[in-house]
Design brief:
CATH architecture: Up-down Bundle
Shape: globular
Distance between the termini: 16 Å
CATH class: Mainly Alpha
Largest sheet: none
Number of domains: 1
Radius of gyration: 20 Å
Strand content: under 5%
Structural class: mainly alpha
CATH topology: Growth Hormone, Chain: A
Number of strands: 0
Order of helices and strands: HHHHHHHHHHHHHHHHHH
Length: about 400
């Protein structure tokens, strides 16, 4: 029977606003690093932990949250996450010492696992067949890219200047999360799942056991690990590299932010234009991987005008590969089991977001130059390209194309 469901516009708008609020809160910390180190008398490592700590919690929580989401439904699961996110951020506004701020940041990270990690399942649940990549692209464009870009742009020059304290910044950024939580619980309806209703605990266990043996799922999770290793190292240390090249602080920030803004149209238009075509999903993984080989190996020698182009291309390729690697795991399984598939991919993938920048920082401490950092990213991109060619066509894509 043909599925004539349409993409739910109102619910999707709420999901985009929620994602925007989540990422804006997460990325409100990096611009305040110098402020936090000064006010709390902490090291740069400790300040960095206020950002990486929630990501670690995301990785730890993603799998159990995904399993529970498969049982209780996407509305309740993400709804729990919205409450934890708001509590964590609001409490960060009360923190007057580092220990409390770290604990409250970890509570925020717990909410990440119950919300952000479940977005691929949400996209799969709300999408007509073959449209998951488009729905996930809309969420990534309006939520992830715009949320990060806005936080980096206004946290210090506008919000911190207005409030005069890092606590005030967290209070201000908690407001969108509160609004998003209210909208989520009041607007979003649970999608009926007839299959889940008749499945026994034994059947569910058998399904999960089968999923854990799925080699393609682990391949995709590994590729997401490599992707986040490259992207978070690349974007995290790019401003420092630009400063070393003699670029002033404002220009370095502007050049880095280009990666986010060029990603907004890319992540929507390319999946939309390719929908219904014979373009394999894995092309959106191996093409960016190949281009990252070129980008990471050439930026050290490129003139400044070309660096702008390199950064812009990296932004487009990053979000295209990221969006695809979030979607492919949930296309491997029925909708009612997408939570665990998403959880596994996100849990493993976001370890790379923590490991990559840490490895890059240690390399810089040991060598004092960026050649080995970008050289490592080039090698990782070669590995990503090789493994990307092993991705098969998913069942959902076959259904979309009538294969």
């Amino acid at each position: 029977m043909q599925d004539n469901r349409k993409i739910p516009g109102k619910r999707l708008a709420v999901a985009v606003f929620l994602t925007f609020s989540i990422l804006a809160n997460l990325f409100s910390v990096p611009p305040m690093e110098s402020i936090l180190t000064k006010n709390l008398s902490i090291s740069h490592f400790q300040a960095g932990l206020l950002f990486s700590g929630p990501i670690i919690m995301l990785a730890v929580t993603a799998i159990p949250a995904g399993i529970i989401a498969d049982r209780i439904g996407i509305k309740k699961a993400i709804g729990i996450g919205t409450i934890l996110l708001f509590i964590g951020t609001a409490l960060r506004g009360t923190a007057n010492n580092y220990t409390l701020l770290l604990v409250f940041s970890l509570i925020f990270g717990l909410g990440l696992g119950w919300s952000f990690a479940l977005l691929p399942k949400l996209a799969r649940t709300w999408s007509p067949p073959g449209k998951t990549l488009i729905v996930m692209g809309i969420i990534n464009a309006g939520g992830v890219m715009c949320g990060i870009g806005t936080a980096l742009a206004i946290t210090v020059p506008l919000i911190y200047r207005l409030t005069g304290s890092f606590q005030g910044v967290f209070y201000i950024w908690s407001v969108p999360l509160l609004i998003a939580a209210i909208l989520w619980w009041s607007t979003v309806r649970e999608t009926a799942n007839k299959n889940a209703a008749i499945q026994t605990a034994g059947t569910a266990y058998a399904d999960y056991k089968k999923l854990l043996k799925n080699k393609i799922l682990w391949l995709l999770a590994f590729l997401l690990f490599l992707h986040n290793f490259v992207f978070y190292t690349w974007s995290g240390w790019l401003p420092t590299y630009l400063l070393e090249r003699g670029v002033d602080v404002n220009s370095a920030g502007l050049m880095t932010s280009i990666m986010l803004w060029v990603g907004v149209p890319t992540v929507i238009l390319i999946p939309l234009l390719s929908s219904g075509s014979n373009v394999p999903r894995k092309m959106f993984v191996w093409v960016p991987s190949i281009l990252f080989i070129i980008l990471t190996s050439s930026i050290l020698f490129a003139p400044q005008w070309m660096v702008w182009l390199i950064i812009a291309i990296s932004g487009m390729m990053n979000v295209l590969r990221f969006n695809t690697l979030l979607v492919l795991p949930v296309e491997l399984v029925p909708r009612e089991r997408a939570g665990m598939a998403s959880g596994i991919a996100v849990a493993i993938g976001y370890v790379g977001a923590v490991v990559g920048p840490a490895v890059g920082g240690n390399m810089l401490d040991l060598t004092g130059n960026f050649q080995i950092v970008f050289g490592t990213l080039t090698i990782i991109s070669v590995i990503s390209t090789i493994f990307a060619f092993l991705i098969p066509r998913t069942n959902e894509q076959k259904q979309e194309q009538g294969a």
